[in-house]
Amino acid sequence: MASLDWEEDQRTLEELGIQLSVSKLQIADLKERAQQQHNQTTSGGGDFKGDSGSNGGSWTPDKGVSNCKGCEKEFSITRRKHHCRHCGAIFCSSCSEHTAVIPGESGGKPVRVCDVCWQRLASSSVLPTQMSRTKADLDKLRKQWEEDQRTLEELGIQLSVSKLQIADLKERAQQQHNQTTSGGGDFKGDSGSNGGSWTPDKGVSNCKGCEKEFSITRRKHHCRHCGAIFCSSCSEHTAVIPGESGGKPVRVCDVCWQRLASSSVLPTVGTSQTLSLQVVSCEQRATRAEADLRIEREWRAAMQDNEVKHKEQISQLQLENRQMVDEAKQMSRTKADLDKLRKQWEEDQRTLEELGIQLSVSKLQIADLKERAQQQHNQTTSGGGDFKGDSGSNGGSWTPDKGVSNCKGCEKEFSITRRKHHCRHCGAIFCSSCSEHTAVIPGESGGKPVRVCDVCWQRLASSSVLPTVVAVKPSGVECNSLKLVFNWVPVGTRKKRGCGEYHVQLN
User: Fold this and answer.
1) What residues does the FYVE-type domain cover (predicted)?
2) Which of 441, 461, 481 delimits the end of a domain?
3) Is residue 315 part of a domain?
4) Which of 48, 242, 278, 402 is found 20 to 30 A from 153 (Cα to Cα)?
């Protein structure tokens, strides 16, 4: 009955081992699928033809390449190989962290390119803005990575449960086997070694064969023939004990194995070798799983670093975008102000042109009035009349401007600010200070006041021929000085309007 239970436990162990192998295969398949999806996301596929200007566009095979073409650092487990989808050369992740849409290639999707190709594509204005696309790819990879992590955690839990079940079944099988071998029956042991009694684990700290101390790595094992405790090196053989163990090979020590072999009762078995191969295979699979797990962690750390870099790039681009928007608004306001100033300048130019035309007309009128006054003055001084002026001052003749450089009154030299003025009575040339008076010459100037020098003005006043005159502005305000007639000018408007009209009134 115990043998049947032990066989059943062995079958259960085999089933659990198969289940464990299937679980590991599922984990490896999921990792391979995740890696393929990651490669498709980063490489985009398509009809890649490469760049004729770099590496000839040929795809460099992985075999034989041990250093990055960019930084020339050696590849390792943490520094993986990556192909540039534009030139085909092999780089590390740091030298090929950019992605770009190659015109006419990769189906319009961004693919991995090296730094040199990325700069060339950017300088040729064929590198599109891929912030939103890169963010979508990162979100997709993050969701896929989270799903894979959950799957790995579930499989890890299943694996742990399977290991616990296997350990429990092993313990039950060991207990049943101990009961079978030590609970009576036909087993009598070898009278020459330990009397066939089963040695308890407690109190035994050294191997009976090599006498080495037991530890975590050097475990205890009972010889199923003599019942003593040995290490695995001293009890690595198996043998079928006649009349015991149901015809199955069991663990025996080296001494018992030699005795059984010398007595020609040791059958040829390959179970130990088979189990050793299975153990080696399991250890190799566990080593590969640990390496894959380490690579997965490193890949996750690299993905997190790339995500941080992409977030920083997105923040920088958003900041530059806001600055450009602010500058565009400032330029719009400046352009509006410039248009306003241009319109105002054009209006001022038209106003200046109108004032210039008005000034020209006024000058022509003044010249005409001067000419008429000169003609009247000449007629008055040459035609006789009651008043003939001062016999000592130029004889009443009109002095020409040419050749006169000093005022006849104060003898100061004429200049741009000190202008020449003719006295309408004697005809001599004076400055404005020496000819600031006006008077109505009897029989001349049509009864209007004209400019006279100080001497003529005094003489006319002393001869009682100088009338009292009052200057009247257009508003009706009277002034006692004729100086306001020449100094007062209306200001304060840009509109076209006529100059103020001035006239004198005789009392």
Assistant:
1) 62-122, 201-261, 401-461
2) 461
3) no
4) 278
pLDDT tens for each residue of 86-107: 899 999 998 998 888 887 776 7
Cβ atoms of residues 431 and 412 within 8 Å: yes
CATH number for 95: 3.30.40.10
Number of neighbours of residue 456 by Cβ within 10 angstroms: 26
- The gap from C-alpha 223 to its chain's centroid, in whole angstroms, comes to 73
42 is a domain residue: no
Q: Is residue 185 part of a domain?
A: no
Residue where a domain stops, chosen among 125, 149, 182: 125
pLDDT tens profile 481-499: 333 333 333 333 333 333 3
Q: H helices of 100-130, where?
A: 115-123
Chain position carrying tokens 């450089």: 405
Nearest residue to 99 (alpha-carbon basis) of 113, 109, 85, 87: 113
- Domains identified in the chain, total number: 2
Between residues 53 and 430, the one the model is more confident about: 430
Terminal CA-to-CA distance of the chain, rounded, Å?
161
Using the structure block, give the residue that is written with the tokens 């681009």. Answer: 317
CB 230 within 8 A of CB 253: yes
Residue 455: closest CA among 392, 397, 382, 378: 392
Domain annotation covers residue 183: no
> Tokens 């039950």 belong to which residue?
172
Q: Residue 425: which domain range?
A: 404-461
Q: Is 51 within 8 Å of 86 (Cβ atoms)?
A: yes
CA distances from 357 to 361, 363, 369 (A): 6, 10, 18
